[in-house]
Amino acid sequence: MRVSDKHQKITQAAVKVFARKGFFNARISDIAKEAKVADGTIYLYFNNKYDILISLFEDEIGKIILRVKLLLEKETDPLKMLEIYAVHHMGLLRDQRELVEVLQMELRQSNKFIKEYRNTKFIEYLDIVADIVRKGQESGHFRQEIMPGIVKRAFFGALDEMSRLWALSAKSKYNVEETAKHITDIFLHGMVVRNS
Amino acid sequence: MRVSDKHQKITQAAVKVFARKGFFNARISDIAKEAKVADGTIYLYFNNKYDILISLFEDEIGKIILRVKLLLEKETDPLKMLEIYAVHHMGLLRDQRELVEVLQMELRQSNKFIKEYRNTKFIEYLDIVADIVRKGQESGHFRQEIMPGIVKRAFFGALDEMSRLWALSAKSKYNVEETAKHITDIFLHGMVVRNS
Amino acid sequence: MRVSDKHQKITQAAVKVFARKGFFNARISDIAKEAKVADGTIYLYFNNKYDILISLFEDEIGKIILRVKLLLEKETDPLKMLEIYAVHHMGLLRDQRELVEVLQMELRQSNKFIKEYRNTKFIEYLDIVADIVRKGQESGHFRQEIMPGIVKRAFFGALDEMSRLWALSAKSKYNVEETAKHITDIFLHGMVVRNS
Amino acid sequence: MRVSDKHQKITQAAVKVFARKGFFNARISDIAKEAKVADGTIYLYFNNKYDILISLFEDEIGKIILRVKLLLEKETDPLKMLEIYAVHHMGLLRDQRELVEVLQMELRQSNKFIKEYRNTKFIEYLDIVADIVRKGQESGHFRQEIMPGIVKRAFFGALDEMSRLWALSAKSKYNVEETAKHITDIFLHGMVVRNS
DNA sequence: GATGAATGAGCTTTCATTCAT
DNA sequence: GATGAATGAAAGCTCATTCAT
User: Fold this and answer.
1) Does B161 sit within 8 Å of A153, measured CB to CB?
2) Does B143 map to a domain?
3) Is the model's pLDDT at B123 over the cut of 70?
């Protein structure tokens, strides 16, 4: 078994356990059991409990960034790009629900309590939106007074809050993809230059 | 000292301590020390640690709802109402920063792990936005296809994510009130009926 | 209300609560609630929790001694006296079941852990049996080699162990009075001089 | 060190500590210190404080039963068997004084407060006496009207109450073995068929 | 590298007792 | 005398982390 296999097994187990119980209620032994390794083995791959969370966060956000950037490469229309971003983001909920739950929670917890940790990967993920907005302004689609630094957070926040609803309630009257498009629609209408 | 004084002293102390250390890292003795009461005294007013958090949440959200509803009473224009809501919401960050931090965190934690707890007060707070949107649709300001149930969460999420930035980073290049207005502007433009 | 009334109300409440939960699991506030007084009031009549138990023990054993001595006064036959003692002792179970349960438990606990406390009342109660045995030896009914100091404890132990069965199991196939007589019968047959 | 060693070390430490302080006054840390293990180690072998007590009780009564049954195997005379039982029972006081003290106390406590716990081992120990009595009735030694179910408890109670005296007072004017024989003598005389 | 038994610091909660009213 | 809010010491139990095997 390659080293990276154990590392990944533990990470995947941690996602499951954190999603189920939350970071503070999760025990190392839970993760060890889920990953089918000994408790002590976890400390061969991670420094401590926090480290599992942070590694997990960085690694998984990293993968998400790669995937969404790949999707966006094929597109040049900023309006469509924003929709792709939104649909992909919300799609994570369907495909990696447990991961989304963990990222949601930990986004609000870890970076506050692990002071040393600057959440650069997450900022990189947000900046994709800022770049799209800037591109849209350069191409004359979006109003010049729109502030990309605000939109990137507002857009993410809007999508994320909807995710939270699903993560909690399991079922909802809203369809995931439709919701992503509806939110995108509002932001696009909110940002476009009006010809009237 | 009136009974309510002790209750309130403990609540306020809990807000400070939870904001500083987070719910799980906060010790009862921290709260007791901050409130200048004995550890045991806390249990005369609250059933357990979770109960402090939930009571605090309900009470404070309740007060916020009362205040924002009072502000909205004087206004009938849905566009201005939405801005009032946003400005007031973001204003909390200036006036009750610690409280906002606690509400932020706990919104993502407690209702997931305290299954019995249905966060009705929070939903009531969100529904204010839904009501404004519906009102705007009735008056013909907002497009009929806009879904109030999505907007209420998207709008809250957008504002809240901006709050999170401030709560974390202490200083920011963005002005709180300006940001509230900018986000409102995008949503309003996104929702209004266009006459072209 | 006379002073002694409060004292007695507390004692009676303590009997109930100790019987229900045991000494260590009983809370002062339980007793206070049962006695319908404030927690603090108990400390006007008793020094501490142990003191309630000891006072209760002394007082109630004292009453039992008085009653059984009164019954025995009318009788001179040692054989009948022993039966009277046994039937009265077991009868307590019917009339003051809760008290018996408390005395049972505490007999095994308190005098071990409250070193200062010499359980003189209890010894006085046992000595009634020793006196009956000695009387029976003097009258020539009982064998001279019988040791009253052992019989008093063995007889009490035998009766008490039966009590314990009832106190625990609530219902039993054995009748209380019949059992008292059966045990007495064995001890009497065991002690009498045989004429063969 | 074998697993069973730790388990046994803790059990033996618990016997010492419970005998010294009683179950409720004994702290887990006392037992841990006595056993020379960490507090947490105790919870690797026992579920909780009660569990130590119950395990201890079951295990030790189990051993006592085995030993006395072995002794009784060699004997067929019910009269001698009863004496063997009594002498062995009282002998425990000499050889395992602390254990006897613990069993004494807990017999009066645990099964009352740990409702789930049915004290089957103890009943098995008592039933040895009932079996002897029945055997004696079958062989025509003991009177037919003697009730084994009562004798088993009365006999145990008589012996146990004497034990209690020693356990408490440390020294006594009575010799342990002589006392066992004296009590047995009374019960045997009390039960035998008289030829007059 | 892998294991999992052992550690012991840490924390919530309880409750006997006090004392200002 | 009576009250009951307040106190704070105390203890059972958990669990992240270590380390001998």
Assistant:
1) yes
2) yes
3) yes
Task: Report the distance from CA of residue C21 to the C1' of nucleotide F12 in Å, as an integer.
Answer: 19
Which of D68, D87, D79, D91 is closest to D181 using CA atoms?
D87
Question: Residue C52: which nucleotide is closest by CA–C1'?
Answer: E16
Q: Is any atom of strand F within 7 angstroms of residue D40's beta carbon?
A: yes
Q: What is the Cα–Cα distance from C93 to C98, expressed in whole angstroms? A: 8
* Contact at CB, B168 and A111, closer than 8 angstroms: yes
- Residue B158 CA, nucleotide F9 C1', distance (Å): 48
Per-residue pLDDT band at B150 (split at 50, 70, 90)? very high
Q: For C190, which of D161, D167, D189 is closest by C-beta distance?
A: D189
Which phi and psi angles does D192 have, rounded to 5°? Answer: -65, 155
pLDDT (average), residues A132-145: 96
Residues of chain B found within 8 Å of residue A113, distances taken between Cβ atoms:
21-22, 25
Q: What confidence tier does D196 reach under pLDDT thresholds 50, 70, 90?
A: low
Chain B hits for A182, Cβ within 8 Å: 147, 150
* Rounded Cα–Cα distance for residues D162 and A94 (Å): 74
Judge whether A47 lies within some domain: no
pLDDT in tens, D40-77: 999 999 999 999 998 998 899 999 999 999 999 999 99
In a domain, D152, yes or no: yes
Note the pLDDT of residue D147: 96
pLDDT in tens, D148-162: 999 999 999 999 999
CA angle D148, D151, D155 (to 5 degrees): 145
Domain of D158 in residue numbering reads as: 56-189
* pLDDT tens sequence across C142-163: 999 999 999 999 999 999 999 8
For residues B22 and A113, is the Cβ–Cβ distance under 8 A? yes
Residue B194 near chain A (CB below 8 Å):
yes
Q: What tokens were used for B124?
A: 């009531």
Judge contact between A100 and A167, C-beta under 8 A: yes
Q: Residue A9: is its pLDDT beyond 60?
A: yes
D56: β partners? none
Is the CB of A43 within 7 Å of strand F? yes
Q: How confident is the model at residue B194 (pLDDT cuts 50, 70, 90)?
A: confident
Judged by CB atoms closer than 8 Å, whether chains meet at B108 and A112 is answered as no
Region for residue C146 given its phi and psi (left: phi exceeds 0; alpha: psi -120 to 50; beta: otherwise):
beta
B26 found inside a domain: no
CA angle B36, B37, B41 (to 5 degrees): 160
Distance from CA of C189 to the nearest CA of D (A): 4
Cα–Cα distance list, B77 to B136, D128, D138 (Å): 8, 91, 103
State whether the Cα torsion C24-C27-C30-C33 is positive or negative: positive
Instruction: Kindly state whether B185 is in contact with chain A, defined as any CB-CB distance less than 8 angstroms.
Output: yes
H-only helix segments in chain A: 3-21, 28-35, 39-45, 49-73, 78-95, 97-113, 120-138, 148-169, 176-191
**Structural domains of chain B, count:** 1
According to DSSP, the residues that pair with B192 across neighbouring strands are: B142
Overall average pLDDT of the A146-165 stretch: 93
pLDDT in tens, B21-57: 888 999 999 999 999 999 999 999 999 999 999 899 8
Mean pLDDT (chain D, rounded): 89
Cα-flanking dihedrals φ and ψ of residue A117, to 5°?
-90, 115
Question: Which residue do the tokens 């995937």 mark?
Answer: A67
Largest alpha-carbon pair distance within chain D? 67
Mean pLDDT calculated for residue range B121-128: 92
Given a contact cutoff of 8 angstroms between Cβ atoms, the answer to whether B71 and B88 are in contact is yes
Half-sphere exposure of residue A191: CA atoms within 13 angstroms, side-chain side: 32
Residue A133 reports pLDDT greater than 80: yes
CATH number at residue A78: 1.10.357.10
User: CA-to-CA distance for C25 and C27, rounded, in angstroms?
Assistant: 6
